[in-house]
């Protein structure tokens, strides 16, 4: 697969609203050689019109930086888009009916792949049993991960493809698989996906991202999640075709320069992403200081302080970004203590400069938030998690109790402390939906954790670039990469969701560029065009 040569055209966009700090009232923009060349007013645009290759009349549309989704599992997202999606099932019976229909429609598939079930939302309050799935599939292999992808149910035929699975940690004859047993069964299921199916899934996921105004995704791969062929094929596909940019992270422990070189050889920018310190709250595998409210244990710990410190020390010395998946408060504490130990070894300044990152970081305390700021850690977070599972009646409250659940995902406190935020979806755990993510952060179910729409939008655009080490992108100013999206949107406002959010720069007289009204219930903007490095990767049909 050869890398696609970009076609460099000089383009003038005019007659709309351009979201740019360079000119808060801009209506036009010039793109040249893949970068923003100029942003300004309609009158000044006349001087550029004769010298450009193309003029795009925005017809009142809004132009913003393209979104960055800072946590995606691309192949799994594509398989969910093209396979069995149980996220809409309202009951266990609904889910089993969808399994039966899918199996009947795919007689030639070696292994049936599904996604998205969540028993916490079903009136039955239980997962599908192996016997029920065996009956629904007619005895065929089926892999069906829970919505958080940290546990799964599988048919007998699939388990039979994994010799010795019953002896692995996390195997439960009648409960969802977790830990090593889950990873082994997932590997067996994914091994049945042909290269052609994998490419089709990756292409479907990236095209879907482009249709939502996403210009860059951070692929969070690793040996416990996918495999090296999947990872390198995805990076090659994104380079070769007109698709969103893919920034790759490979979650494998690094002990020294040789390991770091191997991570780089795969095309990864960091040994980060889902390097698991713990699991998830939904699957009762997030690691807690105090037991779950609905289970008599504290979850699972995969890496301790010493392992975190060793990884961060080796990565920092090698000039490689490190990072971890940490959700529970005990897991976050382990990360903070490990990174602090690494800083004592290699120096705080070097650790801060490396911009190590923590994925999810849901259960934080004032002390761990302060440590994130001290150590220069980026919080790569998913606001849709709160929208899906927050609130006093949500899954978080069921797992932790209402009081502990209220502390989750404290975005306002992170911003006040100066912790960099990068927003993502963890797709397919929650769907690719960048404006929905911005809305979820601005209208967090716990009001004191809400941030302004402007701050949330920045975390979903410039924040993703900064999380990958780039400060010159994710904003439409001269010299920045021409990654932008064009939107059909309603009136633009400078919006704070309520008086509990600091209203800095919310007065129209401040000259702050406006954004669409994201008040819950209002329609979200519709993407008309997405451009990456000056190259169009999506145009809405009939526009």
Task: Summarize the helices and strands and which ones pair or pack.
Blueprint: E1 11-14, E2 17-18, E3 28-32, E4 35-40, H1 42-45, E5 54-57, E6 62-65, E7 67-72, H2 74-82, E8 84-85, H3 92-105, E9 112-115, H4 130-137, E10 142-145, E11 152-154, H5 156-159, H6 179-191, H7 195-211, E12 214-221, H8 228-240, E13 245-250, H9 257-265, E14 270-271, H10 305-318, E15 321-326, H11 329-346, H12 348-354, E16 357-360, H13 366-375, E17 378-381, H14 383-389, H15 395-400, H16 402-405, H17 411-417, E18 421-423, H18 434-442, H19 453-460, H20 462-467, E19 484-488, E20 492-493, E21 515-516, E22 526-532, E23 535-539
Parallel strand pairs: 1-5, 2-6, 7-12, 8-9, 9-10, 12-13, 14-15, 15-16, 16-17, 17-18
Antiparallel strand pairs: 1-3, 3-4, 6-19, 10-11, 19-22, 20-21, 22-23
Helix pairs in contact: 2-7, 3-4, 7-8, 10-11, 11-12, 11-13, 14-18, 18-19
Strand content is: 15-25%
By helix and strand content, what is the structural category? alpha/beta
**Quick check: average pLDDT?**
93
Low-confidence blocks of residues: 502-509
Q: What is the CATH C level class of the domain at 75-192, in words?
A: Alpha Beta
* Rg from Cα: 23 Å
Q: Numbering strands along the chain, what is their spatial order in the largest sheet?
A: 2-6-19-22-23
End-to-end separation in angstroms reads 32 Å
- Estimated helix fraction: 25-40%
Q: Examine the coordinates and then state which fold CATH places here, giving the name of the CATH topology of the domain at 75-192.
A: Diaminopimelate Epimerase, Chain A, domain 1
Overall 3D geometry?
globular
Q: Enumerate how many helices there are, as a single number.
A: 20
Largest sheet: 5 strands, mixed
- The overall strand count is 23
Q: Label the CATH architecture of the domain at 75-192.
A: Roll
């Amino acid at each position: 697969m050869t890398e696609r040569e970009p076609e460099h055209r000089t383009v003038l966009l005019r007659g709309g609203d351009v979201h740019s700090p360079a000119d808060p009232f801009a209506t036009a923009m010039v793109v040249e050689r893949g970068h923003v060349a100029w942003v300004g007013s309609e009158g000044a645009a006349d001087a550029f019109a004769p010298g450009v290759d193309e003029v795009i009349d925005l017809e009142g549309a809004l132009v913003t930086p393209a979104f960055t989704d800072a946590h995606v599992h691309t192949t799994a997202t594509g398989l969910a888009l093209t396979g069995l999606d149980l996220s809409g099932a309202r009951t266990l019976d609904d889910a089993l009916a969808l399994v039966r229909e899918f199996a009947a429609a795919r007689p030639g598939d070696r292994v049936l792949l599904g996604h998205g079930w969540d028993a916490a939302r079903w009136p039955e309050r239980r997962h599908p049993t192996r016997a029920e799935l065996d009956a629904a599939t007619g005895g065929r292999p089926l892999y069906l991960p829970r919505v958080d992808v940290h546990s799964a149910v599988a048919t007998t035929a699939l388990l039979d493809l994994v010799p010795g699975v019953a002896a692995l940690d996390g195997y439960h004859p009648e409960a969802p698989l977790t830990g090593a047993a889950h990873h082994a069964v997932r590997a067996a299921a994914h091994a049945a996906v042909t290269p052609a199916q994998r490419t089709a899934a990756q292409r479907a996921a990236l095209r879907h991202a482009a249709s939502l105004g996403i210009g860059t995704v951070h692929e969070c791969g690793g040996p416990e999640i996918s495999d090296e062929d999947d990872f390198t094929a995805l990076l090659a596909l994104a380079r070769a075709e007109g698709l969103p940019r893919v920034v790759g992270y490979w979650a494998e422990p690094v002990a020294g320069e040789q390991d770091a070189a191997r991570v780089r050889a795969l095309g990864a920018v960091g040994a980060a992403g889902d390097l698991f310190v713990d699991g998830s709250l939904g699957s009762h595998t997030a690691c807690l200081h105090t037991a779950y409210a609905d289970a008599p244990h504290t979850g699972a710990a995969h890496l301790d302080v010493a392992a975190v410190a060793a990884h961060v020390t080796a990565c920092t010395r090698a000039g490689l970004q490190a990072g971890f998946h940490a959700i529970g408060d005990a897991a976050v504490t382990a990360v903070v203590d490990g990174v602090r130990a690494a800083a004592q070894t290699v120096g705080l300044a070097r650790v801060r400069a490396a911009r190590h990152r923590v994925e999810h970081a849901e259960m934080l305390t004032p002390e761990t938030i302060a440590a994130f700021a001290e150590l220069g850690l980026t919080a790569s977070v998913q606001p849709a998690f709160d929208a899906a599972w927050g609130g006093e009646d949500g899954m978080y409250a069921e797992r932790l109790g209402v009081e502990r659940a209220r502390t989750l995902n404290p975005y306002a406190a992170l911003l006040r402390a100066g912790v960099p935020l990068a927003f993502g979806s963890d797709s397919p755990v929650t769907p690719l939906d960048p404006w929905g993510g911005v809305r979820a952060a601005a209208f967090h179910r716990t009001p004191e954790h809400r941030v302004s729409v402007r701050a949330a939008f920045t975390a979903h655009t410039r924040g993703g670039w900064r999380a990958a080490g780039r400060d010159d992108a994710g904003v439409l100013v001269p010299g920045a990469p021409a990654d932008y999206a064009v939107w059909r949107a309603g009136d633009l406002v400078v919006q704070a969701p309520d008086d509990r959010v600091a209203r800095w720069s919310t007065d129209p007289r401040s000259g702050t560029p406006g954004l669409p009204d994201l008040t819950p219930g209002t329609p979200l903007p519709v993407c008309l065009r997405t451009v990456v490095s000056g190259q169009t990767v999506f145009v809405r049909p009939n526009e």
